[in-house]
């Protein structure tokens, strides 16, 4: 667990409030409070936990405000370490919650499943990936239920200005990590709130869910391709300062986006090199790739995420004409060199 840094005045009416994520190696989410005449506008809200709520409240009081005075919460994406406390802030203040419409659609689907992140079709997906039956059974025993974050009342689109009186805060759609991930350009301060899209040291999880996703928009068909495309556009925004949701702020947006793109291009080349004339399953290809913790050291949940990342890379290779998909016995997913 990382030590939680202090609340920090970043100047120009911007404050950084670290909100802990209990039990998570990321340590904390950097929630940003933007001063406006009608109260602070928060960029993200943090994890739904009493310790997190206490930290957010203490942070707001440290800057001379309180949860009851928040004017609005704009959420960069639906993941619970960003959206979890938004509903509680709205209960305390009556504020609005804004999110890109594509992620609002995801939350509605989760809500319709009764809070399930996965349903029974996930075990079928693992079988299609070629996972051994004992791993499918282990995954089926996992508790994948969550309390869905509060549904936002404001749906955002690319280029839309946020309701931040006296400021000029614009939504920039950057899909990949989630279908509706947004960055936020503070045009009156030359800052870009990057959420999880651009982080200074690590790269966000980019996965294809489900592995057999046939459509549903360009991001659903090719999340990695969408991520790379939106990364390439970030330097054109011209913001001098990056304010990410994790780790630390940094200034070289162009350099960092180039590093992340290069990392994924290297990964794509490595995966393409594993393809030969004989078809291989998604599970076989995932196990053959290098992973920071090592495939053998991964629990089944981590292997599921690794397989989804590999599926996303394979989808990009397919669209570039570098991988040929097919089906084996029982509909098992296969790829080979074209």
TrEMBL record:
Keywords, in A-Z order: Hydrolase
Signal peptide (residue range): none
InterPro entries: Metallo-B-lactamas (IPR001279), RibonucZ/Hydroxyglut_hydro (IPR036866), Sec-metab_biosynth-thioest (IPR050662), WH-like_DNA-bd_sf (IPR036388)
Pfam families for this protein: Lactamase_B (PF00753)
Residue intervals of the Metallo-beta-lactamase domain: 28-241
Gene Ontology molecular function, alphabetical: hydrolase activity
Transmembrane segments: none
Protein name: Glyoxylase-like metal-dependent hydrolase (Beta-lactamase superfamily II)
The organism of origin for this protein: Nocardiopsis composta
């Amino acid at each position: 667990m990382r030590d939680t840094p202090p609340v920090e005045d970043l100047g120009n009416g911007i404050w950084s409030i670290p909100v802990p994520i209990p039990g998570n190696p990321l340590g904390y989410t950097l929630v940003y409070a933007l001063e406006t005449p009608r109260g602070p506008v928060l960029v993200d809200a943090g994890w739904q936990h009493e310790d997190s709520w206490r930290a957010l409240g203490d942070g707001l009081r440290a800057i001379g405000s309180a949860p009851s005075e928040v004017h609005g919460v704009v959420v960069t994406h639906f993941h619970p370490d960003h959206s979890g406390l938004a509903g509680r802030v709205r209960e305390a203040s009556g504020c609005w919650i804004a999110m890109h419409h594509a992620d609002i659609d995801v939350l509605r689907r989760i809500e319709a499943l009764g809070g399930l992140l996965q349903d029974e079709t996930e075990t079928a997906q693992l079988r299609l990936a070629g996972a051994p039956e004992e791993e499918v059974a282990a995954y089926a025993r996992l508790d994948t239920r969550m309390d869905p974050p509060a549904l936002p009342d404001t749906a955002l689109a690319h280029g839309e200005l946020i309701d931040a009186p006296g400021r000029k805060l614009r939504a920039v759609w950057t899909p990949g990590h989630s279908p509706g991930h947004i960055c936020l350009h503070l045009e009156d301060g030359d800052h870009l709130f990057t959420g999880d899209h651009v982080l200074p040291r690590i790269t966000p999880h980019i996965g294809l869910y489900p592995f057999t996703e046939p459509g549903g928009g360009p991001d659903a068909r090719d999340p990695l391709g969408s991520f790379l495309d939106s990364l390439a556009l970030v330097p054109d925004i011209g913001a001098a300062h990056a304010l990410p949701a994790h780790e630390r702020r940094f200034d070289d947006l162009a350099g960092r986006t180039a590093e992340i793109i290069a990392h994924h291009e290297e990964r794509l080349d490595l995966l393409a090199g594993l393809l030969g004339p004989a078809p291989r399953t998604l599970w076989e290809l995932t196990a053959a790739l290098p992973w920071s913790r090592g495939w053998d050291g991964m629990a089944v949940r981590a292997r599921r995420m690794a397989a989804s990342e590999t599926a996303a890379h394979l989808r990009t290779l397919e669209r570039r004409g570098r991988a040929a998909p097919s089906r084996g016995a029982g509909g098992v997913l296969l790829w080979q060199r074209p």
